[in-house]
Amino acid sequence: MLAGKRITLIIGGGIAAYKSLDLIRQLRRAGALVTPVLTRAAAEFVTPLSVAALAEAQVFQDLFDLKDETEMGHIQLSRASDLLVVAPATANMMARIAGGLADDLASTLLLATDKPVLIAPAMNVRMWQHPATQRNLAQLRTDGVHVVGPNVGDMACGEQGPGRMAEPAEIVAAIAVHFGPHPLAGRRVLVTSGPTHEPIDPVRYIANRSSGAQGTAIAAALRDLGADVVFVTGPAAVPAPDGVEVIRVETAREMLDAALAALPVQAAICAAAVADWRVASEFMQKMKKTAQGLPVMEFVENPDILATLSAHAERPRLVVGFAAETETVIAHATAKRERKGCDWIVANDVSPATGIMGGAENAVHLITEAGVEDWPRLPKPEVARRLAERIAGALA
Ligand code: C5P
């Protein structure tokens, strides 16, 4: 998978450094050549000997290990790689990279390099959430640094929250994505995601239980295959992915406007759970309980974004809709494909017993002109990856 790729792995000084040993093993197994660099603090957590043994390579620790510029200067070391990976990237390391410091070998390499850099942050949750770290993260992203993780979970310090380093397999996957292939490079795709909120009055709205997880995963998977993704999202429970153009909307009408403004695109994936109806006339003041009894609301239909895109003069080459059903899933979804005029429908059963709506997994059926495919129940990111690959195939 990474055969012959030269990776300089900078191991920072955090408890997660122990995972970098497994990361080296996995990188070697994938065929990568690993040049390890240990910071002084990292050597307190893992020994240079074990790092060298697993990497089957010399470990660099000090600027002065690089005997002279004729043998292996720091400029040369920073450039004799296809990718620099920092794992774990501590809060201090992130601050030093963001600030452009060069006060040890690791920071000097990162400042001197002209190669892409991927960091895997790992730190206590409070340190991660501190405005200084978030500022440094934003700066690093602006500078083109790629970021994997951190994950949410139990931490060595006994706290819970974001800050756990991404697992070695996730870091390897992020590295593999970096190197491609990128079959959707140069393709522009639209993804709608999340619920919509339809106002009733200034404080109340109609919504649904969509978390936006599946649409978010699809946008990330398309991005990983190289697509330029326009991500139009309602108020979702999960954060929008990095590396996509995010357009935030609230109502179905705003979502339609944003989707039309994104045209032309090669593919449109309508994963949003758009409210079918809105109240005919929104109350301008907060509605009050009155002696006259209960309010009566009249509803009107929202625009159908999927159907509009499918019939548009600038119709994307591929239009994919979703069908969240609670009964006779396949029959309803097959009819929906015809009715909406889209190419594919991704159908799923969202009955509460399935735990799919708002959950981590999805069991979908892909309905195309050719028929119905039943996919196994998979984590939503895996469903997204498969779908993205199919989309890449269709646009090839
Ligand atoms: O008709 P139904 O809501 O079941 O259709 C679901 C599909 O249609 C989804 O792909 C959804 O994103 C899309 N849709 C839409 N605009 C609407 C309603 C649904 O794009 N107003």
Question: Can you describe what's shown?
Answer:
With 396 residues, this protein is α/β, with parallel strands linked by helices. Helix content is 35%, strand content 23%. It contains 15 helices and 21 strands. It has helices at residues 17-29, 42-45, 48-55, 69-72, 74-79, 91-99, 105-112, 125-129, 131-142, 168-179, 213-224, 252-262, 305-310, 329-340, 380-395; strands at residues 6-11, 33-38, 83-89, 117-121, 146-147, 151-154, 160-164, 188-193, 198-199, 205-206, 228-233, 245-248, 267-270, 277-279, 299-301, 318-325, 344-349, 361-362, 364-368, 371-374, 378-379. Helix 1 (17-29) links the parallel strand 1 (6-11) and strand 2. It starts with 5 loop residues before the first strand and ends with a helix. The structure holds cytidine-5'-monophosphate (C5P). Cytidine-5'-monophosphate (C5P) binds at residues 192, 252, 270, 272, 274, 276, 302-306, 321-323, 336.
Q: Summed up, what is this model?
A:
Helices cover 35% and strands 23% of the residues.
Index terms:
single chain; 396 residues; alpha/beta; Rossmann fold; 2 domains; 8-stranded mixed beta sheet; 5-stranded parallel beta sheet; 15 helices; elongated; binds cytidine-5'-monophosphate
CA-CA gap between termini: 22 Å
Instruction: Tell me the name of the CATH homologous superfamily of the largest domain.
Output: CoaB-like
What is the fold-level CATH name, i.e. the topology of the largest domain?
A: Rossmann fold
- The stretches of 5 or more residues where confidence is low (pLDDT under 50) are none
Number of helices: 15
Main β-sheet, spatial strand arrangement: 12-11-8-13-16-17-19-20
How would a textbook summarize the main sheet? 8 strands, mixed
CATH C-level label of the largest domain:
Alpha Beta
Helix content range of the residues, please? 25-40%
